[in-house]
Amino acid sequence: MSQAYQYTQKLHPGSPFPDIQVTLPDGSTRPLAQANNDQRWQLVLVYRGRHCPLCTRYLNELEQFKDKLAAIRVDIVAVSGDSLAQLQSHSEQLDVSFELGYGLSLEQMKTLGLFISDPRSAHETDHPFAEPGLFVVNEAGNIQVTDISNNPFVRPDLTSLANGLAWIRDPDNNYPIRGMHR
């Protein structure tokens, strides 16, 4: 029996990061990633949602790297497809000071080239959700680093990520965007 497969379209390193607005808990919106005038980069973390204990742990661990990332001019924003109520409930388990967005749509997940899963049951969550994705967007608004996974068990090691970004950001290393061949 043959099975038809649908393939996700991946964002390529060096290409512009999509113009996606994310909603914050106060109801305001902001670009998911945007270059600014002080040469800052943006680390965009897409997480599965409140139902994922591995996401909770990863977000809390990422908070421990916030100062190191800020020192190399990398800001953090995290987003999921959860509702505002789910994010508010999840926030009780989180100890983070970086921005958290909610309501990432299926279309936005597809635009980001993320893997999308259906919940195993209503107990897990009430909507399809994105599997983990991480993007680092440089000051030009282009993708410098990307990592996506089809499950919650495979994510970048945060120590390696922070150290690697520090090395990349050091102008003496003149390190180019990697993975440019399509």
From TrEMBL:
Thioredoxin domain residues: 11-170
Does the UniProt entry include the keyword Oxidoreductase?
yes
The answer to keyword Nucleotide-binding applying to this record is no
Q: What is the lineage of its organism?
A: Bacteria, Pseudomonadati, Pseudomonadota, Gammaproteobacteria, Alteromonadales
The record's Pfam families line, in alphabetical order, gives: AhpC-TSA
Sorted UniProt keywords: Oxidoreductase, Peroxidase
**GO function term, MF aspect, one:** peroxidase activity
Under PROSITE patterns, the record lists:
THIOREDOXIN_2
Full protein name:
Thioredoxin peroxidase
Under the heading InterPro entries, the entry gives: AhpC/TSA, Thioredoxin-like_sf, Thioredoxin_domain
